[in-house]
Amino acid sequence: MDELKELIKKELVIKEEITPEDVKFFKEFLRITEHGKVLVLRDRANATLTDLLLLYLTGKKLANIAGLAPTAEVGLEEIVTETNLQKKVAVARLAESADRGEIIRKERGVYETTIIGIKSLMNRLSKTLETQKETDS
């Protein structure tokens, strides 16, 4: 039974925290002003719309952790304004992300990313970076 317990912990459990390595990873994709404004450095040509939304939500979470934003929660109007997406498109992508557990809807029109969302975003962006490096070579 102890072997099974250890295997489950090793293979299935993820830490529900953002590590220093995670912060360093996102340096290529976002910046945060001293006032907590999130600047996404990827454009639509280099990331999916879902990834752009998750990058913005991740930036807000990081800004909150750094004490630069009062909350990690983001309203729909802010998401639409800051990502420059149409409201209908943003709502559809947010719903898909919520279904995958990447974000949670705190209340109507208010969203926050989850650790699952951050880690899955990192996986997708890592693959995109690898593909770009291969085509650049």
Number of domains: 1
Terminus-to-terminus distance: 49 Å
Oligomer: single chain
Order of helices and strands: HHEEHEHHEEH
Q: How many helices does DSSP assign? A: 6
Q: Look at the structure and name the CATH superfamily.
A: Winged helix-like DNA-binding domain superfamily/Winged helix DNA-binding domain
- Uncertain residue segments: none
Largest sheet: 3 strands, antiparallel
Mean pLDDT score, rounded? 90
Radius of gyration over all CA atoms, rounded: 16 Å
Strand order of the largest sheet: 3-5-4
Strand content: 5-15%
The assigned CATH architecture is: Orthogonal Bundle
Q: What is the CATH third-level topology name?
A: Arc Repressor Mutant, subunit A
Query: What shape does the CA trace take?
Result: globular
Number of strands: 5
Give the C-level CATH assignment.
Mainly Alpha
Helix content: 55-70%
Structural class of the helices, strands and pairings?
A: alpha+beta
